[in-house]
Amino acid sequence: MTEPQNPSRRIFLRGAVATSAVLAAGVGTAPSAAAAPGGFPDYRYVRTLLTPSQLKYNPTGEIIFPCIRGTAGRIAGALGRYYLYYAPHDAPGGICLAYGDSLEGPFTEYPANPLVSRTWQPHYSVSHVSSPHVLWNEDAKEMWLYFHGENTTTRLARSKDGITFTYDKVVLSTSMMPAGSTETSYARVFAHNLPSRNARYVMLFMLNNTTNHRDIAWGWSPDGRNWTFDQTPLVRHSDVGAVNVGGPHLLTRNGSAYVVYNKDKQSGGDLMITEVGNDFTRRDHLGVFYNSAAGAPDNGRSAAPSFGTDGGVPYMVYEAGERLAGSIAVARG
């Protein structure tokens, strides 16, 4: 693997510091990493974790949307200390799993992928399922999987072991958003208290409409199952000079909350950050969070980040490279 160009990639932020709202490794404390400008970890590419051509389940030659979760203290007899969920996007898609004992890899493909397919009778039959986000639900002691299929609908499934899932329900669809909405997908859910809204969870997702410019939208829930959605975008593409924005992830630090998301490559292909405040009332667009390297594996585009720690060291697992032609990589802070 060729080392990426621009090895001094940094995170830029005005006067704030952040870390993952959900520590995927489950170690329970924020890492004390060396800080880049603004106090953020200076994430740098380490290695590529998954490449489509090396996977047994590879129906379309592409994979997207990684989600890393720690299993320690959560899943008895887990296959590894970390479960890495991902999926092809194009039909038929399929929610997939790889497992490993270090966030730097290696990761082993689960031999019976996909865990969830595009047909799940009697619940649905769609062209594809994709964009897995798995939340450890501490109340239920379960892994809760949020995934889309079609792009108009986000569903929830639940599991005790992170492998065998039971279907729950539709949690988001275009019918729950303003008229003209065409996509409500790529959702991630986080434990985050909003007392004024009687909420303990927030959802971030990509919203599209008939203008075909994608924004970041959000909702809140008391239980992770039943949701209320803001009818106006949290981050508009026009707010940050982009054609489209997507792949959002929530970070928190020092009593405030931040949303990290990707701009499409037409707009630069970097990860951006917006401070929304602990109560989601702020809209402070802070600029570039992660500057995608021009060389491999980023090739000018990084997207859909998922964050965790291993031994107190912060990591970011992300899509690296052209959409539907890239890999899953890891960067270390």
Automatic annotation (TrEMBL):
Cited SUPFAM superfamilies: Arabinanase/levansucrase/invertase
Coiled-coil ranges from the UniProt annotation: none
Keyword field: Signal
Entry-linked InterPro entries: Glyco_hydro_beta-prop_sf, TAT_signal
Signal peptide segment: 1-35
Keyword Signal: yes
UniProt name for this protein: Secreted protein
Species of provenance: Streptomyces scopuliridis RB72
Source taxonomy: Bacteria, Bacillati, Actinomycetota, Actinomycetes, Kitasatosporales
